[in-house]
Amino acid sequence: MSLTLRTISREQHLAYIQSLPSASHCQVPAWADVKSEWRAENLGWFDDRTGEMVGAGLVLYRQLPKVKRYLAYLPEGPVINWYAPNLEEWLKPMLAHLKQQGAFSVKMGPPVVIRRWDAAAIKKGIQDQDVKRLRDVEATHIEPRAFEVADRLRRMGWQQGEDGGAGFGDVQPRYVYQVPLEGRSLEDVHKGFNQLWRRNIKKADKAGVQVVQGNMANPYDLDEWQRLYEITAERDRFRPRPKAYFQRMWNVLNAEDPNRMRLYFAEHEGERISAATMLIVGGHVWYSYGASANHKREVRPSNAMQWRMLQDAYALGAGVYDLRGISDSLDENDHLFGLIQFKVGTGGQAAEYLGEWDFPLNKLLHKALDIYMSRR
Predict the structure, then answer these.
(1) Distances (CA, A) of 354 to 97, 132, 136, 187
(2) Residue 98 CB contacts under 8 Å (≥ 6 apart), including other chains
(3) What domains sit in the chain, N to C, each tagged with a CATH number?
(4) Beta partners for residue 71, in sequence order
(5) Digitized pLDDT (tens) for each residue of the chain, 376 residues in all
(6) Which family does this protein fall into (predicted)?
């Protein structure tokens, strides 16, 4: 297949994404409006023979201070045929185009899964004292074609980003936890939960926990979300995003598709004690952000909320419910261990993506950025 790459309109880009079974929420055109501090461009790949669009990519450009040179970033993209034998013919024109646009370095995240571990394999790894990381556990499924993709990228001069040892060194997570829904009944999904999860769902129901949908266009719901989110940030020691970020995210994503983003609250005795956001692109549904109060944890609002979100994802016809990032640490003393422990309880599977890859178009500026980022 002979290919041509060119800038496309947002409408063309969205139409292409809508024609697919699913794509990353980081590759829909409206994601550019969420990341408003970056300049954005929509790219399309076309089959020269038929003129048909066969791939798309959202590029975010971040300018270097004081010079008109940019880092070009394609989060969890581009959306192309990654297993194509002529992968070079897809990526070479992209690099040439981005260089022309003033990019000194390109970062991308191929949406290619390399390994999967089911819950039983992970539990076994946790129980083994000699196992400290997910990568030390024998994978339940390996995708040989993913290794070929990695080899092709290396031969082209792409460099694999460091994962910082925990799978969080990339901008987007390398390790995620997913609950497959395709070909399963809701009863199967519920049976897949471990005993603790099933017990906690029952406990929440018995305590009268109600899960309701909210709306960030409503100032009260937005304030309640932000209140719970900031409590969580303080407890888990991370820097919270401002309220305006979530307001913008809600407005722009739902303007593109009225069912792109949802907000959920778990309520107990009239008080909102837990909240979460959900993103939907085709058959892929993500649990995106979570928040909870410091009290009333004994009524298990988070389990109740996840179960409701899973049921809603199922009702939408989703093939996968994605709980997003996990660390690859299986060490009980690691501060991120609780995250994988909670998600393993859903009986789903951990997936390792190829991670993010860099192509230095200007080695000197790329190196300078590396040094700057490591000192932050």
Answers:
(1) 24, 21, 17, 32
(2) 59, 72, 106, 361
(3) 3-109+356-375 (3.40.630.30), 113-142+163-353 (3.40.630.30)
(4) 62, 105
(5) 899 999 999 999 999 999 999 999 999 999 999 999 999 999 999 999 999 999 999 999 998 888 889 999 999 999 999 999 999 999 999 999 999 999 999 999 999 999 999 999 999 999 999 999 999 999 999 999 999 999 999 999 999 976 543 443 458 899 999 999 999 999 999 999 999 999 999 999 999 999 999 999 999 999 999 999 999 999 988 999 999 999 999 999 999 999 999 999 999 999 999 999 999 999 999 999 999 999 999 999 999 999 999 999 999 999 999 999 998 999 998 888 988 999 999 999 999 999 999 999 988 888 877 776 666 5
(6) Belongs to the FemABX family.
Q: Which of 238, 320, 242 is nearest to 278 (CA)?
A: 320
C-beta of residue 274 within 8 angstroms of C-beta of residue 285: no
Largest Cα separation within the chain, whole Å, is 63
5, β-bridge pairs? 45
**Token digits of residue 306:** 């996840």
